[in-house]
Design brief:
eight-stranded parallel β-sheet; 13 helices; binds 2-amino-3-ketobutyric acid
Length: 331
Amino acid sequence: LTSRRCIHKLTDMQHQEEHPVVLITGSQGQLGTGLARILRARYGKNNVIMSDIVKPREPILQSGPYVYADILDFKNLQEIVVNYNVDWIIHFSALLSAVGEQNVTLAMRVNIEGLHNILELSRQYGIKLFVPSTIGAFGPDSPRNPTPDITIQRPRTIYGVSKVHAELLGEYFNHRFGLDFRSLRFPGVISYDSLPGGGTTDYAVAVFHEAMRTGRYQCYLKPDTMLPMMYIDDCLRSVVEFMEVPNQDLRMRTYNVQAMSFTPEELFEEIKLYVPKLEITYKPDARQQIADSWPMRFDDTRARADWGWSHRYDLKALVKVMFEGLASKFQ
Ligand code: AKB
């Protein structure tokens, strides 16, 4: 009997590993819908619960469960975790760098208090937790080209401070309580069917839309400001691949992931191959100072060595896929 019970237990664990129930917070942001689509195809439509504090965009309703989740309300989170028997949380809720500077109090609540709730919840219920980090977790004292995984981190934005806090607290919960915490530091993410919400790297998305709509774009960063960037498909694939790595194979809990680095000028030159008459003007604002303190290029050798990270999109491939995607959207 005992061994049969053991076998049942093993099969349950195996099933949980192969078909985890995943809760995505902040799922109406830039990354949530795309990730839910991939995870639903992999683990089953009803195993991926999208959540946010806003109403879902139309098609989401038919594609699987969608619930109200306020990350500042611990009981609300407990209820969802228990009712759906959640195994993993992908914690996307956050205020980004530029918008965070405009509302520091709210950024502290969402990015810090919200994270505390998610960490505590994950510890209590034995949940595997992914929290994205960012190039913004570094600051003017960090080496910028390239920026290694482990180096000085003294960011000057509330967004960056909250992300360093998340990295450190997650790693602490890992070694203190055995929480399976995982984090990737993302570059600016570029996508055509979802918009970023108030970051410093948003220009690299906005310019595509303006090139298609008006043929004109005013850039808030100087032409030679180099930052790491990544196409959304690479970004979402990195999350899935990283989450599926067996726990014992990870040497660290927080990894840099790099794909490409470019300046506004380099991006606009490439875009002009598709929109030759594109008119660009530059009017740097407060975001310039933020960008100047961030990495120009990530060193991600450890992610490549430890769990096989490899990007597929460089600048040329990115611009091509963006125009193909936008063309189908604007038709
Ligand atoms: C931002 O610009 O704030 C984000 C990021 C790089 O984390 N896109």
